[in-house]
Amino acid sequence: MKRTVLVAGILSLIIFACKKTNNDDNGADGFNRQLILINMADSLILPSYNDFQTKADVMVSNIQAFTQNPTSGGLAQARTAWLDAYVAWQKIALWNFGPAMNLNFISHANTYPADAVKIDQISDGATYDLNSPFQKSIQGFPAIEYLLYGNNKTDQEIISSFSSSSKSLFINALAKKINDLNKSVLTSWNSTYRQTFINASGVDRGSSLGELFNNTYLPYLEMHNREAKFGIPGGQRTGTALPGNVEGVYSKIHSKALALAAFNAYKAAWYGTGYITSKNGSSLNNYVIFMDRKNGTSIASTLNNQFQATEAKISALEPDFRAIAQTNPAKLQDVWLAYQQMVVTIKTDVASALSVTISYTDTDGD
Amino acid sequence: MKKYLEQPVHIAPLALFRIMFGAVMFISVLRFWLMGWIAELYINPSFHFTFYGFEFIRPLGIYTYLIFLICALSALGLMLGLKYRISAILFFLSFSYIELMDKAYYLNHYYFIAIVGFLLIWLPAGNFCSLDTRFNYTKTYTHVPRWCVGSIRFMLCLVYFYAGLAKLNTDWLVHALPLKIWLPSKYDLPLIGGLVDEIWMAYLFSWFGALYDLTIWIFLLYKKTRKFAFPVVIIFHVCTSIFFPAIGMFPYIMIIGSLIFFDEKMALNLLKWFDKKKETQSILLEKKLATLSYILIPFFLFQVLFPLRFLLYPGKLFWTEQGYRFSWRVMLMEKAGIATFTVKDLKSSQQRIINNGNYLNATQEKQMSFQPDMIVQFANFLGNEFKKQGFQEPAVFVECYATLNARSNQLLIDPKVDLYGKEDGFKHKGWITQFNHEIKGF
Question: What Gene3D superfamilies does the database record attribute to this sequence (chain A) (predicted)?
Answer without folding.
Answer: M75 peptidase, HXXE motif
